[in-house]
Description:
Layout: E1 10-12, E2 15-17, H1 19-34, H2 40-48, H3 52-60, H4 67-76, H5 78-89, H6 91-110, H7 135-146, H8 152-159, H9 163-175, E3 179-182, E4 189-192
Antiparallel strand pairs: 1-2, 3-4
Helix pairs in contact: 1-5, 2-3, 5-6, 8-9
Amino acid sequence: xxxxxxxxxxxxxxxxxxxxxxxxxxxxxxxxxxxxxxxxxxxxxxxxxxxxxxxxxxxxxxxxxxxxxxxxxxxxxxxxxxxxxxxxxxxxxxxxxxxxxxxxxxxxxxxxxxxxxxxxxxxxxxxxxxxxxxxxxxxxxxxxxxxxxxxxxxxxxxxxxxxxxxxxxxxxxxxxxxxxxxxxxxxxxxxxxxxx
Length: 196
């Protein structure tokens, strides 16, 4: 099976990315990352090894790069990587990514690792556990970062699970020291523990 120029390049949550949409994403990302300085085109050329005229076409939103140059652009443009991932997988993907990165950092600080024998700083025992968050726990942590008034009832409303399941999810997060509770039962709130 061969592809035509009219075929979409990438599938994503809401359909497919057309060539014109990809060209716009590339142009906006390059402008955001490299600015509008006179030397911008040459800087991108040094990073990608592409022809300066081609880079000018990408920068101005006239043409899309070849697949090799597109991959090189992904390496040197954080905005392009982020924009493409959000476009392909939705905003939730980026939230999940930050959550995974922060949990990896927290696990390495706590000494929790899988199989490589990192020592636990609290009691010098080797821990070979992995913190596996379920969707409800990920959602709860992400919401807590923006609104400390989230409770088990919010998990119940959003996911349609029982209150005991929601409380169990929160209890596991507390056990893993990902969150802590401040104040009284009635007026207290949860807080995400940031170990960095």
